[in-house]
Input
Amino acid sequence: MNHNDPTNKTDDIVKYLAGEATPAEAMALEDWLIDPANAEEFEHVYQLWQRLPGAPVLLTPAVDGEWQELQERLRAGSKPSLLRRIGPRMAVAASIGLLVIATVGWWLSARQVAAPSPNALTEQQATGADNSKQITMPDGSAITLHHNSAIQYAGAFGTTHRHLQLQGEAFFEVVPDSTRPFTIRIADVTIKVVGTAFNVKDITPSGNIEVQVLSGVVNMITDQQQISVRKGQSGTYDASRKSLRLSDTVDINSMSYATHSFEFDNVPLREVYASLGKTFNRQFRFEDPATGDCRVTARFDQRSLEYILQIIDATLNLHSSQQGNTIVITGVGCPAH
Amino acid sequence: MTAEAHYRQYFYTYFERLFGYAFTMVKDNAEAKDIVQSAFLKLWEKRSSIDLPNAGRAYLYTTVYHLSLNAIRNRAIRKGHHAQLADGITTVHVHTAEEAEIRERIRLAIETLPPRCREVFCKSRLEGKKYDAIAAELDISVKTVEAQMSKALKLLRTQLSDLALTSLVLLFIR
Output
């Protein structure tokens, strides 16, 4: 093998990435990666590998958290554990930590029984079938509640905790504050947030829950599983299988009710207007129905309806005029692409 | 250094790498995590019988390897019982125009691979089959499967040479 040319290593890299490397081969490859030029070559192949269909998303957990978990497992096991070997003084300190946690847990649950408690979900905001609602929470976080949705939270929201319950669909822009984690409970799923903008949706027929993240990171947590959903990704809770799944896309248009951002990729004008109509609460009527077949590729970020209509009119040589709540589109078919 | 100190050092040095290695095999984050945790639990039990500084690493990699193969085997058995679990949820997504174009280019590049090469690549990537299973199915040697996979990646890389860069740019502007 020519040691000067890292591209000769493709065979070994592919074998490793495909999950076919023996322990010895995996160790040899890692040793080879210590050289930055080799690491760069690996990165190139890896980037390509990840772009190809069927690539699972690697989410390496934080080492510190894993070390803690391992300690707990070692402690729980009947075999000699780290804890017992640390010495009596450390063992006492550790058990005090446990005791404190237990006491707080008891205190919290005792408080919840007493009524009216500051942690009872006394506050509620809800929307009907035709309206969405912008809510600014006591901590400054903004929530856009979609149609037929509701949130409930305690009067003490924002003082010691930021916890709320959601039904339906909402878009969240959360103010970062690591001392008071922002958590949302929806059906069987808990969503834990680190300052971010994202959309949560309870998909009614299936009972699935979808979280789409526009910025930052949120964690989706169930009794059995936990995943991190990052910017540009969606997490779905499959209610029938009780499992979480990650996908590398977000649907910008599904959040338009809150963001007023739209993304159309070769979409018939009829559907474009349907999306706009839902967000801006308008009806659209075509003088010539054939106009509805014109195709649109465009992206609008937080633009007014007037602006969007002007752009579409100019692009497709149409004219739109408003009559009450209805917008009438006149035009002579589509310019050939 | 004591065995405990070595053990901790091993964890911090190798956790991520072992996780990555397990993930290449099981392709599931939760499973990979459990496998690496179990490997370290086993190492702790063996700490007096193993020469930690010299043999610890090899022990960890070998354990992760065997646990991963077991996990894949168990999964195959489970799948046999519940065949319907195999199909994923269908979600419809709107992609950006560039994203759609890149997907189309990748699809075309895979389609233009030589037939045997494409067959091996698809069985490995899309059907998630192990090399030995593909070899048995196509009646070829594991070495041939290995060579075809490597060939597929090299050809795709030539065809999509500008793409690795594109994907990085996309990540930044999003």
Residues 78-116 of chain A have pLDDT under 50 and may be disordered. Residues 285 and 328 of chain A are 5 Å apart (CA to CA). Chain A has four domains: 6-51, 63-113, 123-254, 260-331. Chain A touches chain B through 66 residues (CB under 8 Å).
